[in-house]
């Protein structure tokens, strides 16, 4: 183990262990003698060739290490060339080789919860299997047990249900890697410590000196009850990597980048803030594309790019698997920010990961609706595991943390008993609307997700009618509800009712076959949705503000959910008939939410500024959010903010804001194309974005004007407007 070694982690979508941690497959170390990457090497350079999808590291004696991942097989190719003959050792390093209990803070990487409490057993991490095999190194993890789901079923009163009937991606989940090279053979097994974590290394060493090497790593993840057959398939697939060509992978990346781009101040130099904003916007797309072929959504709290937590904070001397907020708990409030910007980039293939997540758990969500409330609806909570069941800790957080007793009227079984998350059922509505808009944007066939759309929306109509009846004017009484995590026990939360109106309107705009309801039912449902509440601005009684709710009992977090009517729902904004000043007043003049602003993490201020046409505010916030990181080497790694590093929902929120500064499409029933509504005069460049109705928009930008505008189909050119007029 030397100072000039090259190390890289292997991460894969769906590598969930028994505790719903998203584990690394392992770490690879490349060591060479003579060493062209010594710490004092003046020739060292590292490049990400983002257009072609590969990385190089160069050192002395024209030594070049090239890394690329096949987009079809997820196989990893490592190619080493040098002017000098070298000895090479490729080490597969693993740190999960003994069964052990996770400590109270370390268990945050699991789905057992954010706190250790006596009612929840300390989770056990089970070891991987690793050994030399067929002249290579085989390392894999197989889930033999489902302790988390077993506990959830009991805790949440589901014991009468058959646990085997629940969708459970942790059950029999198997994942791992096989590393081999024709030029290397098994050597000694060694041990060491890296970044406070002990590891064992299985080393493949060179047979003789050479000036070029090729190493192949096959990866796999799938549920399996026949581990022997699973291993055989992995090794066979890894063997085929030798014949793979990089051309198809490069072609995939070229097609991906041709879909969409926003380039800002391309000639201004790397220190220019506008250039950095455009660059890191592209890097966000790159991070999302790295999981384009994965089955599961990219995680907001680091995605596939988490690294040794000690380098995030010395307070976390844990293994490379660690991240806050779990690797397998779906936190829709955060996840949505990664997927909304993919509409305008045309990355509908990547969006389908999130759509499939909800469709996969729908049988469980419907079972919960029937069991707890006797309704054939989807009961979708916030902070749900990838089974669709509420996170263990969050389901009864007030019991665990404060020893409180559930009020069966306010917090019936099936509803999270949690000051932050209780009655927070509407974040899934944003994914419903993403599905509808994906069809609106490019005629995506949404039939695979129609059931999720309908049963998710059914909750709000059927549940609240059953619980409360209707107002005298025939509208729903949406109580108890929640304005995000902030306004609790809310009555007609603005974020909920505005969202229902937008989502049902989008549904009715589509030519789509529905099964649970029909167009007549959804038209009636839309008429039952209450109006978005307004009130005199607290602290400024002469001004009218969008209200967070008609009423609420207490606040818990710090989100100005009245502004959800601007984004994501677009009820207030440029080109809409509603009085935009009500939303602007809610942001600037509502003293109750004056402290609920920010420029990082999951906050959305720059999006709201853009949609309200406030160019200066939007620009300042977007620059703060998307300029280069000063903490990490990769400029698009920031965090941990509220969550973890790299904070990908930080960049998702920034990407949405930048898009909305450049082009808005939500007004006039999604037909208007508004260019440069909040674009600063000092930014030039060019862009390509997608608009609804299979429309592509490309243009050059010079300050607050565009040139070479191309709108396809050309018939949509008449829908283009400019600025805030």
TrEMBL record:
Name of the molecule in the record: DUF5703 domain-containing protein
Residues annotated as domain DUF5703: 3-262
Coiled coil: none
Cross-referenced Gene3D superfamilies: 1.50.10.10
Single GO BP term: carbohydrate metabolic process
Entry's Gene Ontology molecular function annotations: catalytic activity
Organism of this sequence: Talaromyces pinophilus
């Amino acid at each position: 183990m030397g100072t000039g070694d090259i190390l890289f982690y292997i991460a894969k979508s769906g590598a969930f262990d028994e505790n719903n941690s998203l584990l690394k497959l392992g770490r690879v170390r490349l060591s060479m003698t003579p060493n062209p990457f010594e710490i004092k090497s003046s020739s060292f350079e590292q490049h990400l060739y983002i257009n072609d999808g590969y990385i190089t590291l160069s050192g002395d004696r024209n030594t070049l290490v090239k890394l690329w991942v096949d987009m079809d097989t997820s196989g990893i190719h490592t190619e080493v060339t040098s002017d000098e003959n070298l000895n090479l050792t490729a080490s597969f390093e693993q740190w999960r080789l003994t069964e052990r209990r996770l400590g109270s803070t370390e268990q945050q990487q699991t789905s057992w919860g954010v706190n250790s409490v006596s009612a929840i057993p300390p989770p056990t991490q089970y070891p991987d299997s690793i050994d030399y095999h067929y002249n290579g190194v085989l390392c894999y993890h197989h889930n033999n047990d489902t302790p988390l789901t077993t506990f959830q079923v009991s805790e949440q009163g589901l014991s009468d249900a058959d646990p085997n009937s629940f969708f459970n991606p942790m059950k029999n989940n198997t994942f791992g890697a096989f590393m081999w090279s024709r030029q290397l053979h098994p050597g000694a097994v060694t041990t060491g410590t890296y970044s406070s974590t002990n590891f064992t290394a299985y080393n493949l060493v060179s047979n003789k000196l050479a000036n070029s090497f090729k190493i192949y790593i096959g990866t796999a993840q799938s549920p399996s009850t026949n581990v022997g057959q699973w291993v055989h398939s992995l090794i066979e697939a890894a063997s085929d990597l030798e014949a793979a060509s990089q051309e198809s992978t490069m072609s995939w990346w070229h097609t991906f980048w041709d879909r969409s781009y926003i380039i800002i101040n391309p000639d201004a130099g790397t220190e220019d803030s506008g250039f950095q904003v455009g660059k890191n916007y592209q890097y966000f797309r790159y991070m999302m594309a790295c999981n384009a072929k994965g089955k599961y959504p990219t995680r907001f709290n680091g995605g596939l790019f988490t690294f040794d937590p000690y380098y995030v904070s010395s307070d976390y001397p844990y293994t490379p698997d660690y991240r806050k907020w779990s690797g397998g708990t779906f936190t829709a409030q955060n996840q949505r920010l990664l997927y909304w910007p993919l509409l305008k980039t045309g990355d509908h293939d990547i969006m389908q990961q999130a759509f499939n997540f909800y469709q996969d758990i729908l049988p469980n969500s419907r079972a919960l609706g029937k069991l707890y409330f006797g309704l054939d609806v989807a009961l979708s909570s916030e902070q749900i595991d990838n089974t669709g069941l509420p996170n263990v800790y969050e389901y009864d957080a007030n019991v665990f943390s404060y020893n409180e007793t559930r009020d069966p009227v306010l917090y019936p079984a099936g509803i999270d008993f949690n000051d932050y998350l209780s009655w927070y059922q509407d974040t899934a509505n944003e994914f419903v609307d993403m599905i509808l808009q994906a069809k609106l944007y490019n005629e995506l066939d949404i039939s695979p997700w129609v059931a999720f759309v309908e049963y998710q929306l059914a909750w709000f109509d059927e549940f609240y009618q059953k619980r409360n009846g209707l107002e005298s004017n025939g509208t729903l009484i949406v109580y108890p509800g929640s304005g995000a995590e902030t306004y609790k026990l809310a009555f007609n939360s603005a974020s909920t009712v505005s969202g229902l109106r937008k989502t049902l309107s989008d549904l009715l705009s589509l030519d789509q076959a529905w099964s649970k309801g029909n167009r007549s039912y959804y038209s009636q449902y839309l008429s039952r949705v209450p109006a978005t509440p307004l009130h005199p601005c607290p602290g400024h009684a002469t001004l009218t503000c969008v209200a967070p709710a008609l009423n609420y009992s207490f606040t818990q977090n710090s989100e100005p959910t009245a502004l959800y009517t601007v984004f994501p729902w677009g009820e207030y904004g440029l080109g809409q008939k509603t009085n935009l000043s009500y939303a602007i007043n809610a942001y600037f003049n509502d003293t109750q939410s004056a402290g609920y602003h920010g420029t990082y993490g999951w906050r959305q201020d720059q999006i709201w500024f853009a949609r309200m046409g406030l160019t200066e505010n939007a620009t300042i916030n977007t620059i703060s959010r998307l300029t280069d990181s000063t903490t990490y080497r990769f400029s698009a790694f920031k965090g941990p903010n509220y969550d973890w590093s790299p904070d990908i929902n930080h960049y998702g929120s920034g990407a949405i804001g930048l898009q909305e500064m450049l082009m808005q499409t939500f007004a006039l029933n999604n037909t208007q194309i508004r260019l440069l509504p909040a674009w600063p005069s000092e930014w030039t460049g060019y862009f390509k974005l997608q608009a609804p109705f299979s429309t592509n928009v490309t243009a050059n930008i010079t300050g607050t004007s565009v040139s070479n505008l191309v709108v396809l189909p050309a018939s949509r050119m008449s829908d283009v407007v400019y600025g805030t007029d």
